[in-house]
Task: inverse folding
């Protein structure tokens, strides 16, 4: 496989080098102020996620400062970015961290995160349906084989992810929620509002990244990219969806008539924020706030 890759790179090196040069020029032209604004929106979304978790924990009888939960969220993001299956390791770390540092009982820590994901499924479902609505007009009756294949793959990914979530998570969520109906009921509205806010910020962050590179991409396409990034990141193939998310987003942008070099540049800036910077901050939180010791004390890192 490595030998084949070397051969292909040698054959297409002229095209590859030209594409790299074009991409680097696009990234260099990115407006720093917009990039910093996009980064700020990402950090704000983490704080909102912390507020969301606090509301749920408050309803379960725990009073924890938002500032204390922010490092836990960042730490779980870093762990998720460094392991396959995205949040499948980061969330268990949050559960153990909440127990060890804040005295949250394991069942309560677990139910708080399950409830968070359950409510967040509402805006995700709405955005996913809208994303499919946005994609359909791009075919315009032109049933090009490549477009059909790409669209089919997107639908299969969404169906597979939905089935996977229902089978592995939501069946147990419903059973556990029946134990805490009154306690969690008052947390539903604020949790839904916070979850929706996180997604709105995610969409605006992508939009601002596109503006930073001088790209005029409609909000509908941005929503498609945001939803696609989520579903691709859930596939348990590479740490943090590296390669999978990046390649999927670039392919989608090219499908929407964005030049390849500019598409790569936009994805590179976006992943620098959502993967690179978030992982760096998360690692600092793991080291400084004791999350690394908790992680090593469990089998989550194996």
Result:
């Amino acid at each position: 496989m490595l030998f084949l890759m070397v051969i292909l790179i040698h054959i297409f090196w002229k095209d590859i080098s030209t594409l790299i040069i074009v991409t680097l020029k696009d990234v260099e032209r990115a407006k720093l102020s917009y990039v910093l604004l996009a980064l700020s929106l990402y950090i704000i979304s983490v704080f909102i996620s912390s507020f969301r978790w606090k509301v749920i924990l408050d309803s379960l009888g725990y009073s924890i400062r938002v500032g204390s939960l922010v490092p836990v969220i960042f730490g779980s993001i870093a762990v998720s970015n460094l392991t396959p299956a995205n949040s499948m390791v980061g969330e268990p770390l949050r559960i153990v961290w909440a127990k060890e540092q804040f005295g949250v009982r394991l069942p309560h820590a677990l139910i708080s995160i399950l409830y968070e994901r359950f409510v967040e499924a509402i805006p995700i479902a709405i955005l996913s349906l809208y994303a499919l609505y946005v994609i359909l007009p791009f075919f315009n009756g032109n049933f090009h084989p490549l477009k059909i294949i790409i669209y089919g793959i997107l639908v299969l990914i969404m169906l597979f992810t939905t089935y996977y979530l229902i089978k592995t998570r939501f069946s147990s969520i419903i059973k556990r929620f029946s134990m805490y109906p009154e306690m969690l009921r008052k947390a539903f509205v604020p949790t839904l509002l916070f979850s929706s806010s996180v997604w709105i910020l995610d969409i605006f962050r992508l939009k601002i990244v596109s503006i930073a590179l001088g790209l005029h991409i409609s909000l509908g396409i941005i929503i498609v990219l945001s939803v696609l990034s989520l579903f691709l990141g859930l596939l348990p193939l590479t740490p943090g969806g590296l390669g999978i998310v990046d390649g999927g987003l670039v392919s989608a942008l090219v499908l929407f008539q964005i030049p390849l070099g500019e598409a790569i540049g936009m994805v590179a800036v976006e992943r620098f924020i959502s993967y690179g910077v978030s992982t760096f901050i998360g690692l600092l939180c793991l080291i400084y706030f004791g999350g690394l010791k908790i992680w090593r004390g469990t089998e989550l890192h194996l």
